[in-house]
């Protein structure tokens, strides 16, 4: 009894300390597919392990269109979450509106400027200060292959667009779906930007979608992009409308389809299904884009909060996202590569090692380009204009490639 009495004040102190440090972090994201949910649960566990409460704010829908709509309503009504999955140019737009909080103290203490590549840090800062934290680097220009289906079709693994169409023809003749594709605009643009990179090359891709150069946007090479993009339609099954990206990946996993052109979040689905790269499936650069890297950087932007405890918990979240242990487990599940440059990569598979090597080499040789479909290339206004033209073209009855290039330039011009 005596010991208990003596221990009581200590116990009360310890309890109140843990209560005092506990806050709530509410995180908005659209990671709801198998691989994605597994990845985000790693963050939840870490936060709960710190004694904080995780409030999940998941809004389904790859590409995040629905999530952004919900977020706007919440933020405008003065009740933002602690952090939200906001990427690329959108970070600047939210920063300009005055919603985001300055994370400089955490960034300085954790040396973010030293451990992150510059291509990443410049996206995360508004007005010179960190307002967002990067989670990973996704490569978007990938081709995912079911080798069994290619074998059964007598087709070879394609590395160029010409080879892709030869293989696709054989797969179709053998009764399989050559290209698994979903029916959402951002998925159309994912396919379009892969074809654009192959046809235009990195320099003209950059001129078209980053510099918004009207000559390249409306030029002959852009017409050729639309010609090749249009040919892809012949190899997609008629049920693609409304299909999600992960349902398309499942078609490759199940052997209904031979290939998918999609970012490496698709690898998260293969991994969640227990599939082994190099055996059950292959990862290759999208046809004609070997040695090039289209990047997508997932990040969380941090909102201004009024509650002191929640602000503390929010800073712990910021620190945790770039913690080496979290970076490793999260990215192993997500299919992406860690965003820190000083990571031990020994647990990662060949796809991730290839991605990391290409990310590093392209950082200095001009072959690294931002993804249009993922909001890294240009503002949300210009992006919406590009989405419109490309998706209307892809779903039209008799699309005209030359007209589409002209429309693209005009649409971009009016959105600048
Ligand atoms: C992207 C996001 C990826 C992936 C994908 C599909 O926008 O950056 O992490 O999850 O959507 O949901």
Write a brief caption for the model:
The chain is α/β, with parallel strands linked by helices and 416 residues long.
Instruction: Indicate the overall shape.
Output: globular
User: In order across it, which strands form the biggest sheet?
Assistant: 2-1-3-13-6
What is the CATH class of the largest domain? Alpha Beta
- Overall mean pLDDT stands at 95
What would your notes on this structure say?
It is a single chain. The chain is α/β, with parallel strands linked by helices and 416 residues long. It folds into 2 domains: 11-137 and 297-363, Periplasmic binding protein-like II (D-Maltodextrin-Binding Protein, domain 2, 3-Layer(aba) Sandwich); 139-295 and 365-415, 3-Layer(aba) Sandwich (D-Maltodextrin-Binding Protein, domain 2), CATH 3.40.190.10. The chain is 55% helix and 12% strand. The protein is globular. The protein starts with a helix and ends with a helix. Mean pLDDT is 95; it is low at 13-20. It binds beta-D-galactopyranose. Beta-D-galactopyranose (GAL) binds next to loops. Beta-D-galactopyranose is lined by residues 30-31, 36, 62-64, 138, 245, 265, 296, 298, 374.
């Amino acid at each position: 009894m005596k010991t208990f009495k003596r221990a009581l004040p200590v116990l009360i102190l310890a309890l109140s300390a843990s209560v005092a440090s506990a806050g709530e972090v509410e995180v908005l994201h659209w990671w709801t597919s198998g691989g994605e949910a597994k990845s985000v649960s790693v963050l939840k566990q870490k936060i709960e392990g710190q004694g904080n409460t995780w409030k999940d704010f998941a809004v389904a829908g790859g590409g995040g269109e629905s999530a952004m709509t919900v977020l706007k309503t919440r933020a405008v009504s003065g009740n933002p979450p602690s952090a939200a999955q906001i990427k690329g140019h959108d970070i600047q737009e939210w920063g300009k509106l005055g919603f985001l909080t300055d994370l400089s103290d955490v960034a300085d203490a954790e040396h973010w400027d030293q451990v992150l590549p510059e291509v990443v840090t410049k996206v995360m800062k508004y007005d010179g200060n960190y307002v967002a934290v990067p989670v990973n680097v996704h490569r978007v220009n990938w081709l995912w292959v079911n080798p069994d289906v290619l074998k059964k079709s007598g087709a070879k693994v394609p590395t160029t667009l010409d080879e892709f169409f030869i293989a696709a023809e054989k797969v179709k003749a053998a009764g399989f779906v050559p290209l698994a594709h979903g029916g959402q605009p951002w998925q159309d643009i994912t396919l379009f930007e892969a074809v654009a990179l192959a046809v235009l090359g990195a320099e003209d891709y950059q001129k078209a979608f980053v510099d918004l150069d009207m000559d390249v946007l409306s030029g002959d090479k852009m017409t050729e992009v639309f010609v090749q993009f249009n040919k892809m339609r012949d190899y997609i099954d008629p049920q693609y409308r409304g299909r999600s990206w992960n349902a398309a990946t499942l078609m490759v996993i199940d052997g209904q389809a031979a290939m998918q052109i999609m970012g490496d979040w698709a690898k998260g689905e293969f991994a969640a299904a227990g599939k082994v790269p190099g055996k059950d499936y292959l990862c290759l650069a999208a046809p004609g884009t070997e040695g090039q890297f289209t990047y997508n950087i997932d990040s969380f932007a941090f909102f201004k909060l009024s509650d002191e405890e929640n602000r503390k918990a929010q800073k712990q979240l910021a620190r945790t996202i770039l913690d080496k242990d979290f970076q490793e487990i999260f990215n192993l599940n997500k299919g992406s590569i860690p965003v820190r440059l000083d990571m031990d990569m020994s647990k990662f598979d060949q796809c991730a090692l290839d991605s990391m090597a290409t990310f590093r080499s392209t950082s200095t040789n001009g072959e690294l380009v931002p993804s249009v479909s993922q909001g890294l290339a240009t503002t949300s206004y210009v992006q919406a204009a590009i989405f419109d033209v490309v998706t209307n073209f892809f779903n039209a009855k008799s699309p005209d490639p030359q007209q589409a290039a002209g429309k693209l330039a005009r649409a971009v011009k009016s959105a600048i």
